[in-house]
Each structure stands twice: as structure tokens, then as C-alpha cells.
Write a structure and sequence with these properties.
Rossmann fold; 60% helix; single chain; elongated; 2 domains; alpha/beta; 8-stranded mixed beta sheet; 8 strands
Length: 394
């Protein structure tokens, strides 16, 4: 045993190496997220990339230099990287739900935590309060988004809650320093898995590729109507399918991209293919009545998502956003508005449309909504007809 003694690393050196590994692993998130940002142009990836880069630098500084003295310049530099990193991460969370400015202002209040508590508690308690606050805010924010928008954030929530628990255990002297960094790496790995399968984003890369594809054969006319109700007065479903097929084919000639949102398998891709609609001619979104259904992307321009109104709201908003960024005409066909109303109530659907119409008016997007007036009360349907730019009757 005595011959092996020189090869046994001191415990302090093991702690430094594991913490250094933790820091480098955290920093390694940046190039990966930056590549995702370059490909998708979603600011979330850039903000989280910068946040993890600064957070990782903080850990690396603490691994290589002594930060035990609260008044030392190294400690304050480390604290700066720590807080700035979390400001970017929290701002990125706000960007997910289009609340970037609010999230940024809220995150800028993080450095006030130690300043407010300076005269009320000991430096040690103050340091832990400042360190734990970002983990708590991130966990709560992600959980709130998960509940409100039914987005697929499970891995993010699990990872950040795990980091919160680990840091609380460290603050309570319930865990060895070596295990803290080991567990922190495990928690960040869970977050990393969530980032490489980002199902929380409604529009994924294949939809964006679809939106920018296609060459117009005719020059499209200027948009006059943005919200159009389509009343197909027939009991024959094939006539409704024919109208959708003709609309898609007409859009192809003008370079207009078509996104067909179908509820409850009212029409299937195979039925459209039988009418000469190819897989690349439109983007097909199937919606099903499940609050827990994660947004999933498949090949051949199809996607599956929950029929919850928040999902529909996000989908329409992001189509408008991408259409505006790329100056591309898009038609959204909702098949059918009637089923959405019967499922969620006319007042909830009406409020959704009222919030979307101002954005539609400023965009290159037209929303066609198929409805059946005979299945609604006169009061209900009159409200939707009043806000429509046009009513098509077939």
C-alpha cells in the first residue's frame, strides 16, 4: 500500500479538478447554443448560451482562485460573472413567452438582493441568499410557463430544481463539496438533454425550411383581407377537401406557403395526397385534445400538438413572426374553427382571435377559418362574422 501512496491525489486537489470540470462543462454549452441560434435565429439560445458561458467562467474562477474572502477583488469579479450570467438566463426564459423586456428588468434586480440585505443579516447568510435566488426564480418561472402554456419544459424544470436542491444542501452543510460539483454536472446534463431536443418551441427547423422554400410561378396580389371565414354549405366532406386542395395548389403557384391546422383527424395527409397534394406543398399540424401532449415534429412537414388554446395562440404568433422576418406570404387554414369553439367556448376563442387580428393586419399572413353557422347560436356566430374581413360561402 505504501508504494501507491504517492499516486493518491490530495482531497483538496480532487475538489479543484471536479469543480474545474463543472466549470468547463458549463462553458461548453455556449458553442452548442450559439450554433442553434445561428440556425434558428431564436434569441433564447443566444441568451442562454451567453448566460452559461458567464456562469461557467464564475465556476472556473472559484476552482482556480481563492474566493473565500468576501472583500477580495477575485470574489467580486466571480460574483459579477455569476449574476450577469443568470441575468442572461432569466431574460432568455422571458424570450420564450415574448416577455423579454419584463424578464430583463426583473433579472436586473438580482444584484439588489445582497445590497438590500447588507444591513439586516450576516455576510454568510447574505451570500447564500444571493446565490440561491437565481436558481429559485428560474425554477419558478419555468414551472409557471409549463402550467400556463403546457410547453414541454419537464427536463428544464427537473434540471434546475435539482441544482436548487443541491445548492440548498450545500448551504445547510448537508453535502460534501466534492459531491456538490458532481451533482451539479448531473443537473446541467439533464438541462443539456432538454436543449438538444427543444420541443418547447412551436415552430422547429423543418417548418422554417418549409416557409422559405418554393418559387412563385405567379405574382401574388396585395393582401386585402387577413381574417377570412369559410362557410362550406355542403354535407359532403369531399367538397371541403377539394376546397382545401384547390387553395393549396393556388398558393403554390404564387409562392404562398400554406400551414393547415387540423383538429381531431378531420382530414389526414393521405386524403390530401389522393387529391394531388404532395408532402412539400404544405405544412400539416394535427391537434388533439390532450393538455399534456408535447409538441412534436416529424418528417414530411407534419407536426403534432395539443389542442389547448395557448398552443394555438403561440403557433399563429410564431408563423406571423417568421413570415415577417422572411417577407413571405403565408396562409393558415384552420380546419375547423367550429370545433375549436365547441371545445373551448366561443368567448375564449373570440378573445384569442381579437388578440391575433392586430398582428395579422400588419403581416403577410391570412387566416382562413372553416366554420358551420348552423351549429352555433346567432349571437355567437355574429361576433365572429363582425370581426372577419371576408366571408366565403361555397
Amino acid at each position: 500500500m505504501s508504494d501507491l501512496t504517492p499516486f493518491i491525489l490530495p482531497l483538496s486537489l480532487i475538489r479543484i479538478l471536479i469543480r474545474l470540470l463543472n466549470g468547463l462543462f458549463t462553458i461548453s454549452f455556449f458553442p452548442f447554443l450559439y450554433r442553434l441560434y445561428k440556425r434558428s435565429r431564436r434569441r433564447f439560445y443566444l441568451l442562454w448560451g451567453i448566460g452559461f458561458l458567464l456562469y461557467g467562467i464564475n465556476i472556473t474562477i472559484r476552482a482556480l482562485l481563492d474566493t473565500s474572502t468576501t472583500s477580495s477583488p477575485v470574489t467580486w469579479i466571480s460574483f459579477f460573472f455569476y449574476m450577469t450570467g443568470f441575468i442572461f438566463i432569466i431574460t432568455g426564459i422571458g424570450d420564450l413567452v415574448e416577455q423579454t423586456k419584463i424578464a430583463l428588468v426583473s433579472s436586473l434586480l438580482l444584484p439588489l438582493v445582497p445590497l438590500i440585505g447588507f444591513h439586516f443579516t450576516s455576510p454568510e447568510i447574505l451570500a447564500w441568499a444571493a446565490s440561491l435566488t437565481p436558481f429559485f426564480l428560474i425554477s419558478i418561472s419555468l414551472f409557471f410557463i409549463r402550467r400556463k402554456y403546457h410547453a414541454s419544459l419537464d427536463l428544464f424544470i427537473i434540471g434546475w430544481l435539482f441544482l436548487l436542491v443541491v445548492n440548498i444542501a450545500l448551504a445547510s452543510n448537508m453535502i460534501n463539496l466534492i459531491y456538490v460539483d458532481v451533482f451539479a454536472i448531473c443537473g446541467k446534463f439533464v438541462i443539456f438533454i432538454g436543449m438538444i431536443s427543444p420541443q418547447f418551441a412551436v415552430l422547429v427547423d423543418d417548418m422554417k425550411k418549409f416557409l422559405i422554400s418554393g418559387t412563385p410561378g405567379e405574382y401574388p396580389s396585395r393582401i386585402q383581407e387577413h381574417f377570412i371565414l369559410v362557410n362550406i354549405k355542403t354535407s359532403e366532406k369531399y367538397q371541403e377537401y377539394d376546397w382545401i386542395s384547390d387553395k393549396v395548389k393556388g398558393n403554390i403557384k404564387q409562392g404562398i406557403r400554406t400551414i393547415l391546422i387540423v383538429l381531431y383527424d378531420l382530414i389526414t395527409p393521405s386524403e390530401l395526397r389522393s387529391r394531388g397534394i404532395e408532402e412539400n406543398d404544405l405544412y400539416f399540424v394535427s391537434m388533439y385534445p390532450s393538455r399534456e401532449l408535447k409538441i412534436q415534429s416529424f418528417e414530411d412537414n407534419t407536426a403534432l400538438m395539443s389542442d389547448h388554446l395557448s398552443q394555438l395562440d403561440l403557433l399563429i404568433s410564431e408563423i406571423i413572426e417568421y413570415s415577417e422576418e422572411r417577407k413571405i406570404r403565408c396562409n393558415i387554414i384552420l380546419y375547423t374553427l367550429t370545433w375549436v369553439i365547441h371545445t373551448h367556448g366561443w368567448d375564449n376563442v373570440y378573445r384569442l382571435l381579437i388578440s391575433e387580428i392586430p398582428k395579422l393586419k400588419k403581416s403577410n399572413v391570412q387566416l382562413y377559418s372553416v366554420y358551420y353557422p348552423e351549429t352555433h347560436t346567432v349571437e355567437e356566430i355574429s361576433k365572429f362574422e363582425r370581426i372577419a374581413d371576408k366571408i366565403l360561402i361555397f
